[in-house]
Amino acid sequence: MEILVTGATGFVGSAVTRRLLQDGHSVRTLVRKGSDRRNLEDLPVQIVTGNLTDMPSLITALSGCQALYHVAADYRLWVPKPDEIYQNNVEGTRNILRAAIETGVERIVYTSSVATLGLHKDGTPSDESTPVTIGNMIGHYKRSKFLAEEVARKMALEESLPVVIVNPSTPVGPRDIKPTPTGRMIRDAVFGKMPAYVDTGLNIVHVKDVAEGHLLAFEKGQIGERYILGSENMTLREILNEIAEITGRPPPRIRLPHNLVLPIACIMEAWARLTKTGEPQATVDGVRMSKKKMFFKSGKAERELGYQPQSAKKALKAAVEWFQEEPRNRI
Questions:
Q1: Could you report the per-residue pLDDT of 12-47, keeping only the tens digit for each?
Q2: Is 327 buried (19+), middle (13-18) or exposed (0-12) by CB count in 10 A?
Q3: Which of 165, 298, 294, 151 is nearest to 235 (CA)?
Q4: How many other CB atoms are found less than 10 A from the CB of residue 250?
Q5: What mean pLDDT do residues 234-261 have?
Q6: Is it the case that residue 211 has pLDDT exceeding 80?
Q7: Tens digits of per-residue pLDDT, 137-159?
Q8: What single string gives the DSSP state of each residue in 117-162?
Q9: What domains appear along the chain, each with residue ranges and CATH number?
């Protein structure tokens, strides 16, 4: 099968690409000019240069493809120009799905995020049906992903778009080259650069399981439905203790109150905006998000898709080992 993968240079996208190649599929990748292509090195893929805001490049990339995995996303918790994240995540999703309709793509998997889902006030795990509105979305990243998912669901309902939605939780593992905010936290902990932490919680999942979940959604998912792809819920303290056990380093012992970190994040953002040095170490939206435990359950994917993720411990071990072994990750 001829398949286009967007976001294949990224963390999740590269894992999906490798999994598709493992099954013998012919894979094309949509890659922006100037992108870091390390995750595609030595892979037998066809690279099509283009971007999600350039409709002709999308038509070219999708022509002759039977399937699309739209994994690409602008995953930044702080942006100096917020319009960029909406153009990339919302309008970019609309464009690639419109191009898929025009080129006759038969099946689509759209990679959303648990960021679009509702959370329970008592911290108990949420699922795909937990009530949520855009008013619950903290920051431009979450709002943009919420709106992008609404685009996909509306097109499935109104235009018979053959799309299945997956909502990965917090993937960790090899080839997080950017790295993601979670990957940066793991890297800092691995190299002893994280002296303190805040009280929060995440659902940790191996990136390989997320990739497997994409293929299962393609094969068995219901059109217009969404499926959480996660594994185990852990507090940040538990995550850091696990990393400490793997590395032999002592875990951070200082727990910082959110209200203390918030003004620090404000200062860091102001400095980043002034110096144009990129995303700061701590962001206001990140601190606000951390006040709620991002706990989820993947029961629907397990029941309907046959999804069977491995333990969070194995996922964290794989991430730690990759950060330790990759020289370019050292800080």
A1: 999 999 999 999 999 999 999 999 999 999 999 999
A2: exposed
A3: 294
A4: 9
A5: 89
A6: yes
A7: 988 999 999 999 999 999 999 99
A8: S---TT-PPB-TTS---GGG--HHHHHHHHHHHHHHHHHHHHH---
A9: 2-178+203-233+295-311 (3.40.50.720)
Q: Are 74 and 91 in contact (CB under 8 A)?
A: no
Q: For residues 109 and 93, what is the distance between their CA atoms, to the nearest angstrom?
A: 12
Burial 27-60, CB ≥16 within 10 A → b, else e: bbbbbbeebeeebbeeeebebbebbbebeebbbb
> CA-to-CA distance for 320 and 323, rounded, in angstroms?
5
Amino acid at 245: E
Give the chain's end-to-end CA distance (angstroms, integer): 41
**Beta-bridge partners for 107:** 67
Measured between alpha carbons, how far is 6 from 9 in angstroms, rounded to an integer? 8
Rounded to 5 degrees, φ, ψ at 323 are -65, -35
The pTM assigned to this predicted structure is: 0.93
Q: How far apart are CA 27 and CA 47, in angstroms?
A: 9
- Given a cut of 60, is residue 330 above it in pLDDT? no
Q: How far is CA 63 from the centre of its chain?
A: 26
Could you give the CA distance from residue 211 to residue 87 in angstroms, rounded to a whole number? Answer: 25
